[in-house]
């Protein structure tokens, strides 16, 4: 028995680069080298600066929803860097792609597959899951999510999927079948290597994590709300988090089924999706998009929630059309299950079926349009402050509407037949996902960063990053609409038509601007951490916030609320500031029970990675061991009863009273000083209204 | 302090309902896949359902599983009326035995099919059959492990609030598997033999 399954020395990415390299091999080896180097540097820092203890006790084993959320977002940002770099390499390849380019088409295939997989499953999903994790319990007035341990396990599964996709840079190869992984091309007949297996297991593990997150958030929002926090008073971000979580519960199982059946086809010779012996490849397309279409609303709805909070806060007005926004959110979530066929209008089904799905698709434009008008009406006659989250949000409205219109064009099956699988489609979904999802996440990151860390992000670099994303996005993707209409197919490494080239050059230039925006984000973080003392917002309310989370200290203590609030209005904190009841001290404090740390999270991360790695490389002992460890750990844990620890009421009271004293002593700051060091987290209310 | 309060119990039960809804989608999609494979194309000139299935063993399996739901219900009643851990454990052991009996019969069925050349690698329809039926079988196996764990917890802790809460979720799960099996019995077996 071979202890390493089907793995050999030739599978390590450095081997071809040493043997007989071309530019593709060198780039692959460089990427693999960066992964190895990054891992070594991270380990060196942990040991050299003796951070293991802090990292283990404070982070890896922590069940605090805020810390788990931060880990999700840190993970998402690392993957964002990889995803953007891959995008830049692809744009460079196509800019140079007239009759050639510097990458082999196989390598280009791996790049667009990892880029899509990473951006959806390991950037977007962890980013929004992290934001929901941090913010929702604070917005509903809860001490944690309903199932803190399950939360850590969700993160472990997502991290395991991400680990596999990073390992694929060093050992073996990745699928060339795109982020959708359609068989039979990803079947064993066409790709017998490990590539599609890396795709299957990284996506399947991340999918399990997301399903568990969905269950957790649904229960949290339904069961953990503070007294008085009725559905009609839930902040819009929490509403969108709720609908997204419901979608996670119902839309992730199709992904689990699609990937598991594809794995059975590949590993055990089943015939679900094969060309021969009764397999039906279109079942995969249906299963995948039964997940995939609701997935795009899983991605966009939390961003809509962020925009709703940002527009209201930075216009100094209550959100216009709250009820219509909630209804539109729920309608979008329901309709999201009725449109999946529009991803394959060219499958060969009847024209009537296409017409039904085309009409259903156009219908989604209606609730989305309602939202756009609500946001604009929120700004109308407000005292709008163009702070960094607001730049992202206004940029979103301008660009997202264009993307929505091209979506309506694509929803028409007759048009779709012409532009199916061209760069027009690539331009469309990047137009939805970058200005929609990514701008939303970056706006949320800037908006809530001071709440989570206690200091605000540097506004200068923030503005440069925001404008960089807006300009860079436009330069990169608008040309793709043009070449798409000219007939350039997606996923093409090189082309022979000269007319494409100028557009590709502009697009390549745009990718460099996006890269610059990414660097600006990095610099913003570095500068902000460096000057964190000056940027402190100890009052906890730097933007004159409206919802419960802004009533808390920044950073938020691990128990969140010293006293569970009694909610009396929508925008409860705003109302309490208006009536000056915000400074009323609670009469009594009680002991607070919090979950103890658990090592199950890191254990599951390692075991799930080992499970995936074993299944990819046919290292059966490793897969079996990992598959046994996880349920055993749960069983052992179920016999423990000391899973809580108690924070004494005195400690809570001392902390809370000190915070209230600090806040009361701060000099309130008006709109001019909002993004400066004068802002200590207490707003001069007259200046805003 | 106890690890669980009534609020926490309520929350856990609710979360478990949500989990089962998600799980139900898995089964729904496997049923749908089975439906699309139940064609001449899916049989791929291999063995067909009417040649492979016989009512006898499947009827017995169905009976075993339904009775196991009854015995689990009796365990729940014993818990509710405070009849002591012995009675509860007895009904759980009977349920476990029935669950294991069901799995043994199912595996025997699979072995007989394999002997006739009806393996999942033979055709798309057989892939879908084994995919759907073994997914249910895996759930039953997981349920059996869970019963064993609960027997151990009953012995260690007695019928505490924690244990009762876990048993109520296990009960939901076990009855849920019955419902799924009725679907499999009707669609897969009755559909083929009617």
- Give the overall shape of chain A: globular
Kindly state the number of beta strands of chain B. 0
Order of helices and strands of chain A: HHHHHHHHHHHHHHHHHEHHEH
Structural class of chain A: mainly alpha
Count of helical stretches of chain B: 7
The figure for the number of domains of chain A is: 1
Strand-residue proportion of chain B: under 5%
Q: Based on the structure given, which CATH architecture of chain B is correct?
A: Up-down Bundle
Low-confidence stretches of chain A: none
Q: Which ranges of chain B are low-confidence, i.e. pLDDT below 50, for 5 or more consecutive residues?
A: none
The percent of residues in helical segments of chain A reads 55-70%
Number of contiguous helices of chain A: 20
Quick summary:
The complex is a heterodimer of chains A (689) and B (194). Helices cover 65% and strands 1% of the residues of chain A.
Any overview of this molecule?
The complex is a heterodimer of chains A (689) and B (194). Chain A is mainly α. Chain A has one domain (51-598, 643-687): Cytochrome c oxidase-like, subunit I domain (Cytochrome C Oxidase, Chain A, Up-down Bundle). Chain A contains 20 helices and 2 strands. In chain A, strands 1-2 form a two-stranded antiparallel ribbon. The radius of gyration of chain A is 25 Å and the shape is globular. Chain B has a single domain (55-193), classed as Four Helix Bundle (Hemerythrin (Met), subunit A) (Up-down Bundle), CATH 1.20.120. In chain B, 85% of the residues lie in helices and 0% in strands. Chain B is elongated and about 60 Å long. The mean pLDDT of chain B is 94. The interface between A and B is large, with 46 and 43 residues.
Task: Write the topology of this structure.
The complex is a heterodimer of chains A (689) and B (194).
Chain A: H1 14-19, H2 23-48, H3 52-60, H4 65-95, H5 105-140, H6 148-167, H7 195-223, H8 236-268, H9 281-315, H10 322-335, H11 351-379, H12 388-410, H13 413-419, H14 423-453, H15 459-485, H16 501-530, H17 572-578, E1 592-595, H18 600-617, H19 620-638, E2 644-647, H20 649-665
Antiparallel strand pairs in A: 1-2
Helix pairs in contact in A: 4-5, 4-6, 4-16, 5-6, 5-7, 5-9, 5-14, 6-7, 6-18, 7-8, 7-18, 8-9, 8-10, 9-11, 9-14, 10-11, 11-12, 12-14, 12-15, 14-15, 15-16, 18-19
Chain B: H1 6-37, H2 40-43, H3 49-52, H4 55-80, H5 84-115, H6 124-157, H7 161-193
Helix pairs in contact in B: 1-6, 1-7, 4-5, 4-7, 5-6, 6-7
């Amino acid at each position: 028995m071979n202890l390493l399954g089907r793995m050999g020395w030739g599978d390590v990415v450095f081997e071809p680069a040493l043997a007989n390299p071309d530019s593709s091999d060198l780039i692959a080896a460089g990427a693999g080298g960066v992964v190895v180097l990054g891992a070594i540097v991270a380990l060196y820092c942990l040991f050299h600066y003796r951070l293991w203890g802090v990292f283990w006790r404070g982070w890896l084993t922590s069940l605090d929803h805020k810390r788990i959320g931060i880990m999700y977002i840190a993970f998402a940002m690392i993957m964002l860097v990889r995803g953007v770099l891959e995008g830049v390499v692809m744009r460079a390849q196509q800019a140079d792609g007239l009759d050639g380019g510097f990458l082999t088409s196989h390598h280009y295939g791996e790049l667009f597959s990892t880029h899509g997989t990473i951006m959806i499953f390991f950037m977007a999903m962890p980013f929004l899951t992290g934001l929901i994790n941090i913010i929702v319990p604070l917005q509903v007035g809860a001490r944690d999510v309903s199932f803190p341990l399950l939360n850590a396990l969700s993160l472990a599964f997502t991290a395991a999927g991400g680990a596999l996709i990073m390992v694929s840079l060093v050992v073996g190869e990745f699928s060339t079948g795109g982020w959708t992984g359609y068989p039979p091309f990803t079947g064993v007949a066409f790709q017998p290597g490990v590539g599609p297996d890396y795709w299957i297991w990284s996506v399947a593990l991340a999918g399990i994590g997301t399903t568990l997150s969905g269950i957790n958030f649904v229960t949290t929002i339904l069961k953990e709300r503070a007294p008085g926090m009725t559905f009609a008073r839930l902040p819009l971000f929490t509403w969108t988090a709720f609908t997204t979580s419901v979608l996670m519960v119902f839309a992730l199982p199709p992904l689990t089924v699609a990937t598991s059946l594809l794995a059975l086809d590949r590993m055990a010779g089943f015939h679900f999706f094969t060309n021969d012996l009764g397999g039906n490849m279109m079942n995969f397309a249906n299963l995948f998009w039964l997940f995939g279409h609701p997935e795009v609303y899983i991605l966009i709805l939390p961003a809509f929630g962020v925009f709703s909070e940002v527009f209201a806060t930075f216009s100094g007005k209550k959100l216009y059309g709250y009820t219509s926004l909630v209804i539109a959110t729920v309608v979008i979530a329901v309709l999201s299950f009725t449109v999946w066929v529009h991803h394959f209008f060219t499958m060969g089904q009847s024209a009537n079926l296409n017409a039904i799905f085309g009409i259903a698709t156009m219908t989604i434009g209606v609730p989305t349009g309602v939202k756009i008008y609500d946001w604009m009406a929120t700004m109308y006659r407000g005292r709008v402050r163009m702070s960094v989250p607001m730049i992202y949000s206004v940029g979103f409205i301008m660009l997202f509407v264009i993307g929505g219109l091209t979506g309506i064009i694509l929803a028409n099956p007759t048009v779709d037949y012409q532009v199916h699988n061209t760069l027009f489609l690539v331009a469309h979904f990047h137009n939805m996902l970058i200005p929609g999802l990514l701008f939303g996440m970056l706006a949320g990151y800037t908006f809530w960063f001071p709440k989570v860390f206690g200091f605000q992000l540097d506004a200068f670099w923030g503005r440069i990053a925001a404008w960089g994303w807006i300009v860079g996005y436009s330069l990169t993707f608008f040309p793709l609409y043009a070449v798409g209409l000219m007939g350039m197919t997606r996923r093409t490494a090189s082309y022979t038509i000269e007319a494409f080239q100028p557009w590709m050059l502009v697009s390549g230039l745009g990718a460099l601007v996006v890269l610059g925006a990414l660097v600006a984000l990095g610099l913003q973080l570095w500068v902000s951490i460096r000057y964190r003392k000056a940027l402190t917002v100890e009052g906890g309310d730097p933007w004159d916030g409206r919802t419960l989370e802004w009533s808390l200290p920044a950073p938020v203590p691990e128990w969140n609320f010293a006293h569970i609030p009694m909610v009396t209005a929508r925008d409860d904190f705003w109302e309490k500031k208006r009536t000056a009841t915000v400074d009323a001290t609670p009469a009594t404090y009680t002991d607070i029970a919090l979950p103890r740390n658990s090592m199950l999270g890191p254990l599951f991360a390692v075991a799930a990675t080992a499970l995936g790695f074993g299944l990819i490389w046919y290292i059966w002992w490793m897969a079996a061991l990992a598959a046994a460890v996880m349920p055993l750990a749960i069983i052992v844990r179920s016999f423990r009863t000391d899973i809580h620890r108690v924070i004494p009421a005195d400690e809570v009271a001392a902390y809370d009273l000190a915070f209230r004293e600090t806040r009361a002593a701060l000099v309130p700051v008006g709109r001019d000083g909002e993004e400066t060091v004068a802002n200590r987290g207490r707003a001069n209310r007259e200046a805003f209204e | 302090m106890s690890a669980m309060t009534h609020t926490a119990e309520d929350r856990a039960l609710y979360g478990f309902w949500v989990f089962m809804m998600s799980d139900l989608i898995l089964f729904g999609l496997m049923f749908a896949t089975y439906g699309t494979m139940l064609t001449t194309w899916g049989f791929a000139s291999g063995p067909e359902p009417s040649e492979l299935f016989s009512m006898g063993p499947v009827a017995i399996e169905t009976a075993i599983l339904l009775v196991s739901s009854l015995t689990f219900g009796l365990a729940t009643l014993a818990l509710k009326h405070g009849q002591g851990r012995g009675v509860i454990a007895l009904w759980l052991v009977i349920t476990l035995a029935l669950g294991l009996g069901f799995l043994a019969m199912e595996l025997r069925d699979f072995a007989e099919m394999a002997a006739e050349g009806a393996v999942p690698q033979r055709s798309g329809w057989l892939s879908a059959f084994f995919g759907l039926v073994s997914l249910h079988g895996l759930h039953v196996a997981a349920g059996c492990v869970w019963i064993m764990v609960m027997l151990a917890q009953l012995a260690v802790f007695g019928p505490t609030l924690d244990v009762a809460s876990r048993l109520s979720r296990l009960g939901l799960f076990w009855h849920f598997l019955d419902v799924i099996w009725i679907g499999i019995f009707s669609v897969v077996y009755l559909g083929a033999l009617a």
